[in-house]
Each structure stands twice: as structure tokens, then as C-alpha cells.
């Protein structure tokens, strides 16, 4: 997909389609200043249609005018915005995706849209500037374009396109072109990073193994000159990662601890460290899960996939910061050698853990990764994990669960999520909950009983994150969708990239 930014001049629009937005003001339909210019160019065609009540300005309504007189384009797509006062960012995202897929359905390959035309309508929101709107449009285009083809037959691969190839973004004469272009690049990086995360996450467990993830990381690292190191089980054993390795014992696929170092900032500047749960299949182990929907446990590596998506986006954006991406990857399967309920293991930190349920494996993997990353002397550590079904019960599919030992970090993550429509919601990690993790036979148990399951999981991790500012995102409800539209969402790549962008400003 190509996006170009041009100062608008109606006479030069030779694209196949031109999108014009119209808005409903009480009973009447209004054209924007750009719409007025278009109207003039096509001999008052638009205003004539409005007068004869032939155009509909309700939200997501599209009227198409073919071969508009006086214009170079083949068609005008007149898109309704409804009442501009009622537009918010979520509706705008939805509208943009709707437009992109509508264009694709009509097999339109090149399209011009005026950013000023749109921005006019979106009151009371941050989407005020043409640059932000450009970013939203680019992200929507990427999200519409994503399609899973990796393990499908040839016919699926040849299916119709799902987004136009070329977009021309028209800006006002006095708009800041550089800033619009920068936001197009940000939108592209988020779009590509998100789509990479989706692709990895959607792959079946027999393809996407820990070894596969390590290879994917190495490829990204090579392309963008990031140092990638992969620890195998022998190296992890030397480091004393008894918790992580215990999860992998029941699997024939060896566990991997993947690290990617992106150095865009000053040498020695404390990095942001991202740690992703990369469980390429979670059957539960000896505490085996029920069969229904167990296939979805291939998604238990979405945290890891989102770290790789962010690293890729960073490579594209070349942000002046240092970021370390870590993916702790393993399978969790039942086997004669697998963890058994009641087993006690020793973590890298030296804390002993009684495994009362082998299905609470995410925290076993992550706790050693959290100890490992201390060596990077992090500014902050954010872990991302499909950690608990309880988080889905608490927050559903709209917000990721956020847990943190630092209010400033938590607020920054919440704000980043809000601004890109990839929201999180904070839950507590108070010491009172730690009692639920008491064990008679070890320093801590790996489960905390029926109550507050997402919180006790986070409280378990908190014990291993005492030495730095830490946040944990439980993405069990947000990382993928079930049902007929089953598939990875690519969340929270958008949130994380926005968080990194925001750290540059503060
Ligand atoms: N990967 C799962 C969490 C999960 C469950 C994510 C459902 C998405 C949907 C995790 O490893 C797990 O099995 N957690 C257990 C913990 C329990 C045994 C304390 C859970 O949530 O049931
Ligand atoms: Mn599990
Ligand atoms: Zn799991």
C-alpha cells in the first residue's frame, strides 16, 4: 500500500475515486469548504443533489456518483458523517474501516481523500488535526488489508484485495505537511507491526513453536540491525531458571528465551524492557484443560508476538530510545516428564514455588524472565501476557488488565491506550492479596484460589519485579476474538508503540 500526501488542488485529482464527506446539521446537509470546491468544479452537482434530497448524510452512508461532470476522477464517493458533534474516535475508526473495505469491494485501487474535509467534522476529540486523522486512516487501511493465508489453499490466496493499493491524502494549503507525513509513517509502522503480530499469533501450534518464534525474531533483528540472542534450555539451566524450564519439561519442543536489543537512543540510556509470554500451545499440562475451544490456546503466545510486532515497528520508526524485547517461549503439555500438581521448583530469583495447578504456567515462565531482565538495568519493564481467564471474566474483550507497582507508569500506559483506541483498565496488586498465594511447602504457591484470579496472578509476578518500575498487561480478553471471526487482534501493539512515542515527549 502506498500513501502520498499532497496539498489539495481539485484540478489535479486524477485518482479513480475521490471521497467527499457530508455532514448532517439538524435537518440540513452541509458541505465542508473542500466539498464546496468540489461542488464548484462539477458545476454544482453536489448542492443540486442535496437540494433534491438525493444524498444521505447519515453516518456510514455512501452515495456514489459515476463520471462526475468536470472532474478527472471516475467517481465521487459521498460519505455521510452524520451529526459531527456525535463523532468520537471509535466511530471514526469504524467509519474508516468501513470506507476502506467498501472501496476494496468495488475493486478500487487508487483513491484520494481530503483530510481537511474530514477533520472539520470531528468536534471535541483529539482527531482534530489532519495528521492524527492521517494516522487513523493508515492504521484502518492496514487492519482491513490483513488476511490470514499462511496455511490456506491457493484459491484463498488469490481472493480479492481487501484494501486499495494507493491512497492520496489531500491536505489544506497551510497544513504542516511534514507532520502529516510523519503520522503516515507512524500509522504504517503500527499497521505493519500489528499485522505481523496477527500473522504469528494465528499460525497453528504445530507451525509456530518456540523455535519458530526465535527464527522470526532473528529475521526481524537482522533486517533492522538489532542484536538478537536466543537462550536454549542448557543456558537457561545454567542461569537457574527452574520455573521456566519446569513448564517445558513435558514438551518435545525445546523452550527458548529470546532477546532483541534495539538501540536508538544514547548508549547506556536505560531501556524500556518488554517481556512477552510466548506459550505456543497451552494444553494446561497435567491439569489439562477441557477439550472445548482448546485450539484457541495456540494464542497463548500473543504477548510474545506483540513484543515482536513492536520491535519491528521500532525498526521502521527508528525512534531515539533504547528498547529490549524479550519473549519467553515454551509449550505446556501433559507428559510423563511434565510438572505434577504439588511439585516444588526453584526460580532464578531463588524463590521456591509450589505448582498447585500446572495450567498456571504463564507466571512460571514469566517470573524467570522478569528476574533475567534485571541485567538490562531497565527504566521500566512491561510484561504482556494472555495470563488468566479471570481477566476475561473481569473486563471482557474491550480492555486489557493493567497492573503496576508504579502510578506514573500505569497512568502513561492507560493514556497511551486511550489515545490509540487500545484501552487498558487498572486493577490492584495490594499486599492483602499475597495471602492467597501462601504455600505450606514452598515460598509461594502458583495459584491463589477462586477469588480475584487476575489479581493474584499479577501479585505473583510482582514478587519478581521488585527491583524496577513494572507493569503487567493481561491480554487474555483482548488478544484474539473467538467465534466465526476467530483471529488475533494484534493488540496491544498500538498501545505499546504509542507508549514508546509518548516517552519521547516527556
Ligand atoms: N493461558 C491461560 C489463560 C487464558 C485462559 C487465556 C483462557 C485466555 C483464555 C493460562 O495459562 C491459564 O491457563 N490460566 C489459568 C490459571 C488458573 C489455573 C489459576 C486460568 O485462567 O484458568
Ligand atoms: Mn495455562
Ligand atoms: Zn497459558
Round the mean pLDDT to the nearest integer and report it. 95
Largest sheet: 8 strands, mixed
Q: How do the strands of the widest beta sheet line up side by side?
A: 8-9-11-10-14-18-15-16
Helix content: 25-40%
The radius of gyration computed from the alpha-carbon positions, rounded to a whole number of angstroms, is 25 Å
Q: In what range is the share of β-strand residues?
A: 15-25%
**Distance separating the two termini:** 33 Å
> How many DSSP helices?
16
State the low-pLDDT regions, or none: none
Structural class: alpha/beta
> What hetero molecules are in the model?
ligand BES, manganese (II) ion, zinc ion
Number of DSSP-assigned strands: 20
Topology:
Blueprint: E1 2-7, E2 17-25, E3 28-31, H1 33-41, H2 45-51, E4 62-66, E5 75-80, H3 89-105, E6 110-114, H4 115-119, H5 130-145, H6 154-157, E7 166-171, H7 177-202, H8 210-223, E8 227-231, H9 233-238, H10 242-248, E9 256-263, E10 272-282, H11 302-317, E11 322-332, E12 343-346, E13 352-355, H12 362-372, E14 380-385, H13 389-395, E15 400-404, H14 407-420, E16 424-426, E17 444-445, H15 453-462, E18 470-474, E19 480-481, E20 487-488, H16 493-505
Parallel strand pairs: 1-7, 2-5, 2-6, 6-7, 10-11, 10-14, 13-17, 14-18, 15-16
Antiparallel strand pairs: 2-3, 4-5, 8-9, 9-11, 12-13, 15-18, 19-20
Helix pairs in contact: 3-5, 5-7, 7-11, 8-11, 10-12, 11-16, 12-15, 14-16
The chain binds ligand BES, manganese (II) ion (MN) and zinc ion.
Amino acid at each position: 500500500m502506498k500513501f502520498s500526501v499532497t496539498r489539495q488542488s481539485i484540478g489535479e485529482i486524477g485518482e479513480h475515486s475521490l471521497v467527499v464527506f457530508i455532514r448532517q446539521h439538524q435537518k440540513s446537509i452541509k458541505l465542508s469548504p473542500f466539498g464546496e470546491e468540489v461542488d464548484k468544479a462539477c458545476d454544482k452537482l453536489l448542492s443540486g443533489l442535496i437540494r433534491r434530497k438525493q444524498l444521505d448524510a447519515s453516518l456510514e452512508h455512501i452515495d456514489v456518483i459515476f463520471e462526475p461532470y468536470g472532474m478527472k476522477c471516475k467517481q465521487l464517493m459521498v460519505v455521510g458523517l452524520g451529526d459531527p458533534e456525535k463523532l468520537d474516535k471509535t466511530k471514526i475508526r469504524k467509519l474508516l474501516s468501513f470506507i476502506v473495505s467498501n472501496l476494496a469491494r468495488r475493486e478500487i485501487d487508487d483513491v484520494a481523500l481530503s483530510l481537511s474535509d474530514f477533520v472539520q467534522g470531528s468536534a471535541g476529540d483529539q482527531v482534530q488535526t489532519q495528521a492524527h486523522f492521517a494516522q487513523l486512516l493508515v492504521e484502518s487501511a492496514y487492519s482491513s488489508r490483513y488476511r490470514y493465508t499462511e496455511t490456506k489453499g491457493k484459491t484463498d490466496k488469490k481472493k480479492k484485495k481487501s484494501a486499495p493499493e494507493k491512497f492520496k491524502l489531500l491536505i489544506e494549503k497551510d497544513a504542516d505537511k511534514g507532520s502529516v507525513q510523519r503520522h503516515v509513517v507512524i500509522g504504517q509502522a503500527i499497521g505493519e507491526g500489528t499485522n505481523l503480530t496477527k500473522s504469528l499469533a494465528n499460525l497453528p501450534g504445530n507451525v509456530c513453536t518456540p523455535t519458530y518464534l526465535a527464527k522470526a525474531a532473528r529475521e526481524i533483528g537482522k533486517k533492522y540491525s538489532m542484536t538478537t540472542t536466543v537462550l536454549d534450555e542448557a543456558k537457561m539451566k545454567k542461569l537457574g531458571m527452574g520455573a521456566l524450564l519446569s513448564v517445558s519439561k513435558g514438551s518435545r519442543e525445546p523452550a527458548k528465551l529470546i532477546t532483541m536489543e534495539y538501540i536508538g537512543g544514547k548508549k547506556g540510556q536505560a531501556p524500556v524492557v518488554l517481556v512477552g509470554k510466548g506459550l505456543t500451545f497451552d494444553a494446561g499440562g497435567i491439569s489439562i484443560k477441557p477439550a472445548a475451544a482448546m485450539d484457541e490456546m495456540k494464542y497463548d503466545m500473543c504477548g510474545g508476538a506483540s513484543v515482536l510486532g513492536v520491535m519491528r515497528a521500532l525498526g521502521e520508526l527508528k525512534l531515539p530510545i533504547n528498547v529490549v524485547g524479550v519473549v519467553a517461549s515454551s509449550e505446556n503439555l501433559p507428559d510423563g516428564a511434565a510438572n505434577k500438581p504439588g511439585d516444588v521448583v526453584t526460580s532464578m530469583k531463588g524463590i521456591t514455588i509450589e505448582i498447585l495447578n500446572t495450567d498456571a504456567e504463564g507466571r512460571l515462565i514469566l517470573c524467570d524472565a522478569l528476574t533475567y531482565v534485571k541485567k538490562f538495568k531497565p527504566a521500566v519493564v512491561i510484561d504482556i501476557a494472555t495470563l488468566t481467564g479471570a481477566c476475561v471474566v473481569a473486563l471482557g474483550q474491550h480492555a486489557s488488565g493493567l497492573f503496576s507497582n508504579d502510578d506514573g507508569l500505569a497512568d502513561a500506559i492507560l493514556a497511551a491506550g486511550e489515545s490509540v483506541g487500545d484501552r487498558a483498565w487498572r486493577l490492584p496488586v495490594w499486599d492483602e492479596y499475597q495471602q492467597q498465594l501462601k504455600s505450606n511447602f514452598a515460598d509461594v504457591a502458583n495459584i491463589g484460589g477462586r477469588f480475584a484470579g487476575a489479581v493474584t496472578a499479577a501479585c505473583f509476578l510482582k514478587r519478581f519485579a521488585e527491583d524496577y518500575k513494572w507493569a503487567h498487561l493481561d491480554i487474555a480478553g483482548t488478544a484474539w476474538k473467538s467465534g466465526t471471526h476467530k483471529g488475533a487482534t494484534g493488540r496491544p501493539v498500538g498501545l505499546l508503540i504509542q507508549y514508546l512515542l509518548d516517552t519521547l515527549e516527556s
